Amino acid sequence: MKADASSVQVDRDPPGKERNKYLTFTLGPQTLGLEILPIREILGYREPTAVLRMPALVRGVINLRGSVVPVLDLAVRFGREPYPVGRKACILIIDSYFKEEKHVLGVIVDAVSEVVTIATADIEPAPPFGGTIRSDFLRGLTKIRGRFVALLAAGTVFDMSQLAGLVAKTGRASPELPGS
Q1: In Å, how far from its chain's centre is CA 4?
Q2: What pairs with residue 90 in β-bridges?
Q3: 151 lies in which domain range?
């Protein structure tokens, strides 16, 4: 893997330099990154079963080894229209927490790219304006091979209390997500 030495360290870092692994993926025209710690697995896309009275954010549910997992449309979470699902689409299975309990969510992305190691010092703060994603959803920005990558703040994007509130606010479902 080749990367800009000034921004991303892949495979080798000097001792003592704090770094984390991120999964990079695309959503529409953007490349995003998510720390791999909350990611349980990556599935090939399968059409979720629609659930009546759910907001557009919840595309439906899938059966994951006997458990019902709600599948979220990340584009809708960012306030966009849903993107058409392409042949490289995947569902990221993510652990999220609500009231100190672990919950499992599926998140639709257009395509998974790679896992990279990024030094904390190489993450720039997200600008508070002008982006297509709310700044509180971002941990920051970094550069990989000359392109900016927005790193998501999983704790905010997948905050179960916020997601449950969004579902409740629609007036179309109870405050608890399926599988909660």
Answers
A1: 24
A2: 44, 109
A3: 19-169
| DSSP letter for each residue of 61-114 | EEEETTEEEEEEEHHHHTTSPPPPP-TT-EEEEEEEEETTEEEEEEEEESEEEE
111 closest CA partner among 94, 91, 95, 138:
91
12 domain-assigned: no
**CA 7, CA 49: separation in Å to the nearest integer?**
41
What confidence tens digit (pLDDT) does each residue in 2-35 have? 333 333 333 444 455 688 999 999 998 899 999 9
- Other C-beta atoms within 10 Å of 84: how many? 7
Q: Please indicate, yes or no, if residue 11 is contained in any of the structural domains.
A: no
In-domain check, residue 178? no
Structural domain contains residue 179: no
> Average of pLDDT values for 75-87?
87
Residues 3 and 59: their CA atoms lie apart, in Å, by 35
d(CA 128, CA 76): 20
CATH number for the domain spanning 42: value is 2.40.50.180
Integer CA distances (angstroms), 151 to 84, 89, 136, 141, 178, in order: 23, 19, 11, 6, 27
Number of domains in the chain: 1
**Amino acid 144: pLDDT:** 92
Contact by Cβ (8 Å): 147, 13: no
